[in-house]
Automatic annotation (TrEMBL):
Belongs to the FPP/GGPP synthase family. This is Farnesyl diphosphate synthase. The chain crosses the membrane at residues 189-209. The lineage of its organism: Eukaryota, Fungi, Dikarya, Ascomycota, Pezizomycotina. It comes from the Eukaryota.
């Protein structure tokens, strides 16, 4: 019988990994001040999230095996999971600078913390580098070591092309709503979110168990990418309708001129007068203009539109899960468990 991990159990693995990373830094005789800085960056930026990505590696491995993991299997799967959380930390530290975000996981963004500033850019690079230190330490002799390396490299690149398009579609000083479309939106979110947040953890579990056949990887991708799109739509919805004290971050999409799911939905249904309101107020660094957009979103009843979307897309995803061919090691439970982690989430 598969066993689901808990956040406590998953987080209990991190200190051991942090010790490995600190020892690696010490092997270069890193001065004490820099070492302390690195430790703090690891602890502040890797810990404190929901760990959906990280916990999905051991959860998926246990579901694929159809049994609880042994202690060593759990440690290895959780280590791969923490590598996805280090990748997440690398992206969040960077993204918060690019978006001019204020809070993250209920605290000031790392770059906004005392004395950090643009050192955060180098800290982000070091969070990414930590992935490969752990991979070499614990998986150098694994038959799929090169596949792990290539997977992390490819998924990082996919996320970066998504982020590039996200930023180019949301120039700070040039608001042109004709620049937005659902087609552009889908490309952006598939690459900036879906691959690293949903495909990566399951692909890691498949490689760890050495059942990452092209068929299994393709079947997994065909479901996990739509799941990742849904997850980003949720994030866009929460950016405006979520409670900052509950989601742990203050929404910035409207002022950041983002090609958000919400503005794309609005563009599809506004009257000419309402479109003029969008044109006049969207994408400006102005709280009063932001408030006008938030009021328009309420008038357009976008909250209900999101809830209708959620029921439709989850029905479609459940239909895809039901079609999975389990003959080559894949298990429907892997995707049902991932969906259950995010369905109707409020943060
Ligand atoms: C929307 C996504 C790309 C960024 C936030 O991801 P997340 O909600 O999993 O964040 P946490 O790691 O803080 O739980």
């Amino acid at each position: 019988m598969a066993k689901k991990t808990t956040i406590q159990e998953f987080e209990s693995v991190f200190p051991k990994l942090e010790e490995v990373l600190v020892e690696h830094a010490q092997s270069y005789k890193l001065p004490a001040q820099a070492l302390e800085w690195y430790k703090k960056s690891l602890e502040v930026n890797a810990i404190g999230g929901k760990c959906n990505r990280g916990m999905s590696v051991p959860d998926s491995a246990s579901l694929l095996l159809g049994r609880a993991l042994t202690e060593d299997e759990y440690f290895k799967a959780a280590t791969l999971g923490w590598m996805t959380e280090l990748l997440q930390a690398f992206f969040l530290v960077s993204d918060d600078i690019m978006d001019g975000s204020i809070t993250r996981r209920g605290k000031p963004c790392w770059y906004r913390q005392d004395g950090v500033g643009m050192i955060a850019i180098n800290d982000a690079f070091m969070l990414e580098a930590a992935i490969y230190t752990l991979l070499k330490k614990f998986f150098r002799d694994h038959p799929r070591y090169v596949d792990f390396l290539e997977l992390f490299h490819e998924v990082t690149y996919q996320t970066e092309i998504g982020q590039l398009c996200d930023l180019l579609t949301a120039p700070e000083d040039v608001v042109d709503l004709n620049n937005f479309s659902m087609e552009k939106y889908r490309f952006i979110v598939i690459y900036k979110t879906a691959y690293y947040s949903f495909y990566l953890p399951v692909a890691l579990a498949l490689y760890m168990l050495d059942i990452a056949t092209p068929e299994n990887l393709k079947q997994a991708e065909d479901i996990l990418i739509p799941l990742g799109e849904y997850f980003q739509v949720q994030d866009d919805y929460l950016d405006n309708f979520g409670l900052p004290e509950h989601i742990g971050k203050i929404g910035t999409d409207i002022m950041d001129n983002k090609c958000s799911w919400l503005v794309n939905q609005a563009l599809a249904i506004v009257t000419p007068e309402q479109r003029a309101v969008l044109e006049e107020n969207y994408g400006r660094k102005d709280k009063d203009k932001e408030a006008v957009i938030k009021k328009l979103y309420d008038e357009l009843n976008l909250e209900q539109r999101y809830k209708d979307y959620e029921e439709k897309v989850v029905g479609d995803i459940r239909g895809m899960i039901a079609q999975i061919d389990e003959a080559h090691g894949l298990k429907r439970g892997v995707f049902e468990a991932f969906l259950a982690k995010i369905y109707k989430r409020s943060k």
